[in-house]
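Case study 2.
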Amino acid sequence: MKKPLLYRSVNTRTHGVRHGSCRAYRHERHTKSEKDTLSNHGSMHSNQRHGFDYTPLFRFLLSKVGRPWDQVFSEANPRLDRSEPVFWMVALHESDKKESVRTDESTYYSGLWVDEAGLLQKVNPQLTHEQMKPFCNCCTHTFNGVVFPQGPPLKR
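Prediction:
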């Protein structure tokens, strides 16, 4: 039996589907501050690929914590369209480790890394959704699939 893919296609043509930041361009275009000039908004043709949701991959990787990395990667890679999304969450080098990884506008997952023994591990196993703080009040934020509390947003 063929195993299911670890990504899914999402609708990008529906009216109101947003990609990128929470703030709409229409709220920023007439600002006078130096940091909000149009040159800081980035390219209109970003390298980001829209239309794919890798939530099944991220859940798969979390379920494999403590297992040998080579086995986990060899099981995941054939079920993906490309291998890059694996490394959004998994650090192979000590310098790339992050406690949490932001994968979408308001979606966070535990950062993972491969230890000296070649096992997949969480960077900070004690990190929970209660310790996370939202960046804005307009979105529902999740950490490892669990909604974390709305409070005052963090200062950027």
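The mean pLDDT is 80.
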